[in-house]
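Q: My collaborator sent me two sequences in one message, no labels, and asked for predicted structures for both. Can we handle them in order? The first one she listed is below.
A: Yes, handling them in the order given. First sequence, followed by its structure tokens:
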Amino acid sequence: MKLICNQRVFSACINTVQKAVSSKTTLPILKGILIATYGQQLKLVGTDLEIGIENYIDAEILSPGAVVLSSRILGDIIRKLPDADIEIEVDDNNTTTIRCENSEFTLVGQPAIEFPELSRVEEEEGYRLPQDLFKNMIKQTVFATAVDETRPILTGVLMELQEESINMVALDGYRLALRQANTRNSHNNKAVIPSKTLNEINRILLEEENTDVEIFFTDRHVLFNMNKIRVISRLLEGDFINYKQIIPKEYKVRAKVNTKKLLNSMERASLLAKEGKNNLVKFSIRDEIMNITSNAEIGKVFESVSIELEGEDIDIGFNSKYFLEALKIIDSEEIYLEFTTSVSPCIVKPVDHSNYTYLILPVRLVG
């Protein structure tokens, strides 16, 4: 194999596929990146057998071939080379020579035939989403997935695709995040996508990109096609919780509050809350004021935020971390906080649209 490509383009390509390479694997071949010619393009592939990323770049192919090279070493080398053309040459023993201006590296490669093939996903009946919308939907849900593996299905995000809409839902037993959007789909589908996959896609997607993401499913895998980047991931198996039963249909108390002001107050209150045992902040809602307090052994904090109140007064406590994570990803100027009782879930919603719903369980107040 022999080819010429641009250093900057090649480095960016390596950086993309490295997101699927695991440093903890016991299989040496999985610590590498597959580099293969594909017509007049160069294909790079990284995988940890759970997720695989393919990236295609333009290159001058002088002779076809393929090789597997150490992801870490290759990435470090290419990153340090000058922004110029790189020549890559691989002999029959997989010995790889990389030349760029006054630099020359020789690496011991592995045979491409030993690299695992990514699962095949037929690109027939698929779905399309604008990249900026998909990125926003990931950002507003994936943070609420479970971290521990006791209930594996909750470590992923449920994606529901219907004829007129798409829903993405994440929950971990303490909070729930639901993001909805209007789309036109040819058929219905639903699947649970691992949070790791969506986090990597979120890093790949460009907010200013105008193109769509194409999504294709099989029973066990999903393919995300983003221009010259393809991400193939396994799906999580099992039944997702019926989240619609969890979300309250009514409320007795509703407070309208400025998102930024509440976020700032919560961030200050959490400075002491996280010194306590359960990260507790207490909301005391009276008339047009919401007082936020937190007590810890090292001291206490008092914050006051103006609100518009419907309903009666209420005292309720929350884990400040869970509340802050929601406030940080809501991009509306004002939000509603909806309560039923001091031991029932709180619903957080934007005032200006109904596309986002966040539910958080309260912490029981003592005394």
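Q: And the one she listed second?
A: Here it is, processed independently of the first:
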Amino acid sequence: MLTKNRSRAMVAAALLLAASAAQAHPGHGVDGLAAGLMHPFTGLDHLLAMLAVGLWSAASARGAQRARGPLVFLAMLLLGGLLASAGLVLPGVEAGVALSVVLLAVLMLGARHIPAPAGLLIVAAAALLHGQAHGVEWQAGASFAAYATGFVLGSAALHGAGLGAGAWLQRVQAWAWRAVAALIGGGGLVMLATRL
């Protein structure tokens, strides 16, 4: 028992340390499909958020309804990116992105108790912020369509991974679900602290 708890604590600490060091938006320019595809995988905040949406969707809905969370996220992600590429950027996007990771973890913990419309509203708001972060990095003069196609496809892949992991986690002990949500939320809190 002590070994299991120690292992869990070590994994949690490693993830939190990685979260504090990771910056999703290091200021590099992006200008194509490959850069868009990689973006969701190279920033811990994006990675955690995309997985959390898939995890929440797996726990909060059944059958085809599970696609609602990822579809809402992808639509609002694209809208946020389009707005940012046009120069309409919300204030505090970086802190908002980190806060969205925390809120998505809370959503995971309340997956069966938070009404679906409220959950989808949280997902939509998070996606708009993440889209803004993607759009800010786009280089003017490059193809926004190629870059946006990439970040939407990369995000969809992570949502799929979250849906698969969520389906698996529903079959294991409840502490595993809570531990994953706590790790995601803890990572978001550390990122938020570094961005305020």
